[in-house]
Design brief:
Blueprint (H helix, E strand, L loop, with lengths): L1 E2 L4 E2 L2 E2 L6 E2 L10 E8 L5 E8 L8 E8 L8 E5 L6 E4 L7 E10 L2 E2 L3 E6 L10 E8 L2 E7 L8 E8 L6 E6 L4 E4 L7 E10 L2 E11 L5 H9 L2 H28 L4 H21 L8 H5 L18 H4 L5 E2 L5 E2 L1 H12 L9 H8 L1
Length: about 375
């Protein structure tokens, strides 16, 4: 810097003093104005840059550092570039499949400035296709994509990424520019999908077309709701439920109507059914009133009455008496018939009533 001093008062400035040159110490420069990478071979590349806008001194050189992006813990490779005029440098012995991060810093006598950073690799940059007139049509659970490739960009591969906004899963499909169309099938109806066309540029994926598309179609839950609210569906379900209830009631009634008894109860019922006719039809019901004719006067029985167990038949007592027998061998009407005649004939007879007289009365 050159310094001059002037004195002034109310009348104006006085003459300046002789100039004095003042030199300030150098400071750290600003970062380089630009930096770019050019592919040279599979293991080497060229870095090109421009000087800082604020050198803050005299640029005496540059420092270049780089490391693999995939291994951030790796050691930085460092190169001092002493020539400040040649604003480029070739980097050799690089991995052909790795991506690198480069740091370039300007240097003065006051120290190092701030670095400029760039990433790159030895993989040549691929051509990103420029498709013309990308269109799509929406169908049920499907999106049909169409495009027209540029004349000079035939047979270039790229990828189509699509993802539902309801999910984090990204689906990828590899296509070719000459394919000119693709259908995305089995999509969720009623969902919105984000669709991207991506091309691989060195190790990065570059998006060159993107759009959000709403898929049409009936959502399964809406299909069920629409059917469930139909009158015929409600009537059908009601009829089925009513039919099942009627069948259950019929089965319950039939099951309880037959009943189940033990073997002993069945045998007792069978015996009672056989004994009841013999009691009712053969002997009838006796009471004290009916036995009074026999108790009024009971003369002694003489030899006319044969003892029990005699081989004489009933014909000896009744002659032509019609004797009927039950199924079990008992006879019907022997005593009942005689008792009725005794009652009708009266008790005027002076003789006592006896079985013999009853038999003779029948004669």
């Amino acid at each position: 810097y050159m310094l001059k001093v002037k004195v002034y008062n109310g009348k104006g400035d006085g003459p300046p003093s002789p100039a004095v040159t003042v030199l300030t110490p150098e400071g750290a420069p600003g970062k380089p104005a630009s930096l770019k990478i050019e592919h040279l071979s599979d293991t080497s590349l060229i870095l090109k840059w421009t000087q800082p806008h604020n050198p803050n001194g005299i640029i005496i050189g540059y420092e270049l550092q780089y490391q693999k992006v995939s291994d951030p813990e790796s050691i930085f490779e460092s190169i001092n570039i002493p020539n400040p005029v040649g604003l480029n440098w070739t980097v050799d012995n690089l991995s052909p499949t790795s991506k690198y991060k480069f740091y370039l810093t300007a240097m003065t006598n006051g120290g190092l400035g701030r670095p400029i950073v760039i990433e790159g690799s030895t993989i040549p940059e691929r051509v990103v296709p420029t498709l013309n007139n990308v269109t799509y049509s929406i169908r049920d659970n499907c999106i049909h994509l169409k495009w027209i490739p540029h004349e000079l960009e035939q047979n270039i591969e790229f990828q189509i990424h699509y993802k539902s906004k309801k999910s984090e899963d990204i689906h990828k499909v590899k296509v070719n520019t000459t394919q000119m169309s693709l259908s995305l099938q089995n999509l969720d109806p009623g969902s919105s999908y984000n669709i991207k066309f991506k091309a691989l540029n060195r190790t990065d994926e570059v998006t060159f077309w993107e759009d959000d598309v709403q898929v049409v179609g009936v959502v399964p839950s809406e299909m069920f709701e629409s059917v469930a609210t139909q009158g015929w569906f409600i009537g059908l379900i009601s009829a089925i439920v009513l039919l099942i209830l009627v069948l259950l009631i019929i089965c319950f009634i039939k099951r309880n109507k037959g009943g189940k008894y033990s073997v002993k109860d069945k045998e007792d019922a069978h015996v009672d059914s056989e004994a009841r006719p013999m009691k009712d039809e053969t002997f009838g019901e006796y009471s004290d009133h009916e036995e009074k004719p026999f108790t009024s006067s009971q003369p002694s029985l003489n030899g006319d009455i044969k003892p029990l167990g005699s081989d004489d038949s009933l014909a000896d007592y009744g002659g032509s008496v019609d004797v009927q027998f039950n199924e079990d061998g008992s006879f019907i009407g022997q005593y009942s018939g005689a008792r009725e005649k005794d009652v009708t004939g009266g008790n005027d007879s002076s003789g006592g009533t006896s079985p013999v007289n009853a038999v003779r009365a029948l004669e």
